[in-house]
Amino acid sequence: MALMGWIAATSGEVQAQSIPVANSSFESPTPPAGFPAFPQIDLWQKFPQPQGVPLPGGITWDQLSGVFPNTSPGSADHIDNVVGSQAAYLFAIPGVGMSQQLESTYQPGNAYSLSVGILGAGGIAENSTFQIGLYYLDSGNTPVSLGSTTVAYTAATFPTPNHLNDITASVPTVQAGDAWAGKKIGVQLVSTFGTGAGYWDVDNVRLTAIPEPTTTGLLVIGAASWFGFLLARRHRRIR
Fold first, then answer.
1. What is the C-alpha to C-alpha distance for residues 211 and 111, in angstroms, rounded to an integer?
2. Is 9 left (phi over 0), alpha (psi -120 to 50) or beta?
3. Strands (E), 77-211
4. What is residue 141's predicted lDDT score, i.e. its pLDDT?
5. 183 neighbors 103 (Cβ within 8 angstroms)
6. Which domain holds residue 166?
7. pLDDT grade for 15, boundaries at 50, 70 and 90
8. How far apart are CA 89 and CA 189, in angstroms?
9. What 3-state DSSP class applies to 69?
10. pLDDT digits over 60-98, tens only?
11. Measured between alpha carbons, how far is 187 from 215 in angstroms, rounded to an integer?
């Protein structure tokens, strides 16, 4: 029974391996004292301003995304499930986004799952959209999307500005012959449609690698065989 429990636990660990994402809960930098937000996000690259996108009066493109400290519990705008003490904001304007290339690479035999906490607030317009996704850079250094999910803001989908909802994007099992096998994993978060009213808050970026079932099964079988061999040797010595 102990052996079976160990194998089950080991199998579970193999199935979901967490991959580090730098500044995943947007704790850096810390806004200066008295500032409600700060238009900088350490270790993430902001998207450049696209042509033809109008901006709200008196605001520059760089100010449209950044970090902010969560308010204290009991405050009207306190978010109840922020990880740490800060989150990131992105105005609901097309093209406002950020990305990060990880040190980890796409490995053959693994599928990948990206999850992000998100909410829309501040008078955001109905049907504004936000996308999370995974990508890689091709030989021309051009981002190529491998899997993405788009969420649309509606009052029914986001009934409260005080709670982040998880959305998830995935990449199917990587094959050895895929162009992205061995390439660095890219993560991106971007506002894809909006009128400029309101903003998106995001936090708790999580990435996991999930080995295909055949790989997991072989590992479990191998572990069982190894333990069986050790038990057999121990039994012979006792006799």
1. 6
2. alpha
3. 86-91, 97-105, 110-121, 129-137, 143-152, 165-171, 184-193, 199-211
4. 97
5. no
6. 19-210
7. confident
8. 11
9. strand
10. 999 999 999 999 999 999 999 999 999 999 999 999 999
11. 25
> What is the mean pLDDT of the segment spanning 205-211?
98
Residue 169 lies in a domain: yes
Q: What are phi and psi of 227, to 5 degrees?
A: -65, -40
Q: Do the domain assignments include residue 6?
A: no
- Tokens standing for residue 195: 């009128």
Query: Has residue 143 been placed in a domain?
Result: yes
CATH number of the structural domain spanning residue 24? 2.60.120.260
Quote the pLDDT of residue 54. 87
- Residues of the chain by 3-state class (helix, strand, coil), percent to 5: 20, 35, 45
Total domains in the chain come to: 1
Neighbour tally for 71: CB within 10 Å: 14
Note whether residue 4 is domain-resident: no
As a whole number of angstroms, the distance between CA 180 and CA 115 comes to 20
Q: Could you tell me which residues come within 8 angstroms of residue 210 by beta carbon, excluding any fewer than 6 positions away?
A: 15, 16, 17, 110, 111, 112, 113
CA–CA gap between residue 216 and residue 214 (Å, rounded): 5
d(Cα 133, Cα 188) in Å, to the nearest integer? 5
pLDDT (tens digit per residue) in 128-157? 999 999 999 999 999 999 999 999 999 999
What gap in Å lies between CA 22 and CA 43, rounded to an integer?
A: 7
